[in-house]
Amino acid sequence: MKIGILMCGAFPEQLQELTGDYDAMFQALLSGQDFTFESYSVFENEFPNSVDDCDGWLISGSRFGVYEDHDWIGRLENFVREAVTVARPIVGICFGHQLIAQALGGTVEKYEGGWEVGRKMYEFGGVELPLNAWHQDQVVKAPEGALTIASNATCEHAAIIYGDRAFTVQAHPEFGAEMIEGLIMTRSDQVGDLAKIDAALEGLEHPVANEILGDQIADFFRSNRTRDGEA
User: Fold this and answer.
1) 20 to 30 A from 98, CA-CA: which of 69, 161, 168, 182?
2) Active-site residues: which are they?
3) Predicted TM-score (pTM) of this structure
4) pLDDT given for residue 229 in this prediction
């Protein structure tokens, strides 16, 4: 199964030296799942020719906001809507989570409580899973018909499922402790809250559930689905 990774940004070289860019981290997260991968720098207007070029799609995080006025964001929203229509499975992480929600009628805003950084606990159907986060924007209103499947006290729509068409997560299951530490070292000024940075540093010593989310993403991609209009 071929997965197309839609890159919505790129980390500076200093951070890429730690774990690679988004596509390398996603390939590591989904290693052993019998997938092949192809990357597209959509933030530089490098798009696939068709939603059928890959068997499934994964939209990365980004330094941009989904509500910003960039041509590639509108183009990516159109791509999402087409993929959903023709039942090409699509997964969104952080910015990708927000972009899919916005494309399908949801609302994304900056969280009034500021940045969420480091290891956070999320309730997935009664099971608490720790995942690394790094965001200020979040989905504040899910699209009609979407099902929120994970949340916590500061992020109501932490994971959303759209039937068999899309699966999205606000946190970063591809981020390990090295990437969070690197972000703390290079972007803590953006966060502007020493208590949150200290908590994120403390969280580096504790495990996260990346492997569990990686398996869930892989299972979603492999699920049987039928295009609209097909028997």
Assistant:
1) 182
2) 94, 172, 174
3) 0.94
4) 47
